[in-house]
Design a protein that fits this description.
CATH class of the largest domain: Mainly Alpha
Distance between the termini: 58 Å
Number of helices: 11
Structural class: mainly alpha
Order of helices and strands: HHHHHHHHHHH
Largest sheet: none
Helix content: over 70%
CATH superfamily of the largest domain: Tetracycline Repressor, domain 2
Radius of gyration: 19 Å
Length: 205
């Protein structure tokens, strides 16, 4: 594998932790999809990422940890963009619909990584699995807080907030899990519009 073009200098590897981390995550994700989780070694990930093996081991002690990093990466991407998107928005409905639309798009952009989470989560060690589960709960809390705010304003009816938040997550994941079916007749934007209508119908009095 020719990694010359992507090889980071030693200085890069020391100075730019974010760049190194992303290269490891992207390389691992691509190899997991191509070769499978069990057949991929940390040495191969290091080579594909263009990161020295000692530096790679600094970030990951085992392959299971990478799955947690993948989930963290998706969550960070969602959070950072969400903060920018809802800045200055007070209306609970507009805030929630913006967050849902963004989450659906992040899941779609990261669909290979998201599918890995479903396919390989059962093969992870217990601490890594628990870490991923906790990160998913953190995503649900973002939606739960918005739904609760809408209830307190009298805009949404009283619902089981945790269940409603997880419904949103699972509807987003359904786009990638059943994409083989939906892609035949729906674009992502059409899917988002239809699901937003269904979610708001569930929440409105």
């Amino acid at each position: 594998m020719d990694t010359h073009k992507t090889q980071l200098t030693v200085l890069d590897q020391i100075a730019d932790a974010g760049k190194v981390r992303k290269k490891i995550i992207d390389a691992a994700s691509a190899l997991y999809v191509k070769k499978g989780f069990n057949a991929t070694s940390i040495e191969e990930i290091s080579e594909a990422a263009g990161v020295s093996l000692p530096v790679t081991h600094h970030y990951i002690k085992n392959k299971s940890e990478i799955m947690g990093m993948i989930m963290e990466d998706m969550l960070t991407l969602f959070r950072e963009n969400l903060i920018k998107m809802i800045h200055g928005i007070d209306d609970p409905i507009e805030k929630l619909t913006s967050a849902i639309g963004l989450y659906f798009k992040v899941v779609d952009q990261q669909k290979e990584k998201a599918l890995l989470m479903y396919q390989k989560s059962n093969s992870l060690d217990k601490p890594s699995k628990a870490h991923i589960m906790q990160l998913e709960v953190e995503v649900s809390k973002i939606f739960a807080e918005m739904i609760q705010e809408g209830i307190e304003y009298g805009i949404f009816r009283k619902v089981d907030v945790d269940l409603a938040a997880y419904n949103i997550i699972m509807i987003a994941h359904m786009w990638i899990l059943k994409h083989w079916h939906f892609r035949k007749r729906l674009t992502l934007n059409k899917y988002i519009d239809l699901q937003l209508s269904a979610i708001l119908a569930m929440l409105k009095p």
